[in-house]
């Protein structure tokens, strides 16, 4: 198609957008078909086009202002609400953010990631705030809530195919497991730590191998977390007293680092297929 015909079609699409003859996402789809590299693309910010803002309806602006006002008033009066209402407001906010994130994932992925991040952080900090507000001093409650948040992050990362939330979810669950080990093992030795963590690393890497046929993103996250867990025994020596010398810990870390490097090099043609 020559440039003149392309310009005519693009002008018509702009006319359809302004006149509301076609929905916004249909106009965006048609624009992507007929706009070439030499044609200036419509300005946009975080997936929202300038034309959609310029041609937006006053009802949309009123709804946005009402939502912002409701959120601000809820935050300012949060302490005066009862516990059920506090939990309800927090849950509703998190659900709405996740819902909008999934709805706009294909059209505006940056906004989708931002909303998921806001809801995930709100889920964690509001829960910790409520536990502190009501003087819950049990460490089990805090760690249990972290495990719950990690499960939600992992679930949403898998459903939305967002690797960063999958990694955060897995690391949160791994951290919960590490906390349980710290309270079960008293001055553990080298063998106790290794036997507690190495099988976890192997299982995560095995799960990555199983997942790479259907979901390479999940396989990448599992492979990364499994590789991190490989060094978890040495990392735990910074958090608890262990029955081994610092020189032995350094030798153990060096040996595992070398073995991991050799394994990754020898199996590079295999694991590259998992993640790419």
From TrEMBL:
The chain crosses the membrane at residues 60-77, 83-101, 113-131, 137-155, 162-182, 188-211, 218-236, 248-267. Keywords: Membrane, Transmembrane, Transmembrane helix. This is DUF2157 domain-containing protein. The lineage of its organism: Bacteria, Bacillati, Bacillota, Bacilli, Bacillales.
């Amino acid at each position: 198609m020559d440039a003149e015909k392309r310009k005519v079609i693009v002008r018509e699409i702009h006319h359809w957008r302004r006149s509301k003859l076609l929905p916004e996402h249909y106009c965006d789809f048609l624009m992507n078909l007929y706009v070439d590299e030499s044609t200036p693309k419509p300005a946009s910010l975080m997936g929202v086009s300038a034309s959609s803002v310029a041609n937006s309806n006053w009802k949309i602006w009123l709804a946005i202002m009402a939502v912002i006002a409701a959120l601000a008033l809820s935050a300012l009066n949060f302490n005066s609400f009862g516990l059920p209402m506090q939990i309800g407001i927090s849950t509703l906010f998190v659900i709405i953010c996740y819902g909008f994130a999934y709805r706009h994932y294909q059209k505006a992925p940056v906004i989708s990631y931002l909303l998921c991040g806001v809801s995930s952080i709100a889920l964690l900090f509001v829960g910790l705030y409520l536990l502190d507000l009501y003087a819950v001093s049990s460490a089990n409650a805090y760690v249990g809530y972290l495990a719950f948040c990690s499960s939600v992050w992992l679930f949403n990362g898998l459903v939305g195919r967002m690797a960063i939330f999958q990694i955060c979810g897995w690391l949160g669950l791994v951290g919960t497991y590490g906390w349980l080990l710290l309270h079960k093992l008293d001055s553990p030795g080298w063998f106790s730590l290794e036997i507690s963590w190495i099988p976890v690393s192997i299982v995560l890497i095995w799960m990555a191998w199983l997942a790479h046929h259907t979901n390479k993103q999940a396989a990448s996250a599992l492979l990364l977390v499994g590789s991190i867990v490989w060094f978890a025994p040495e990392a735990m020596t910074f958090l608890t007293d262990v029955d081994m010398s610092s020189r032995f810990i350094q030798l153990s870390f060096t040996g595992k680092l070398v073995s991991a490097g050799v394994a990754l090099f020898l199996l590079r043609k295999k694991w590259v297929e998992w993640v790419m």
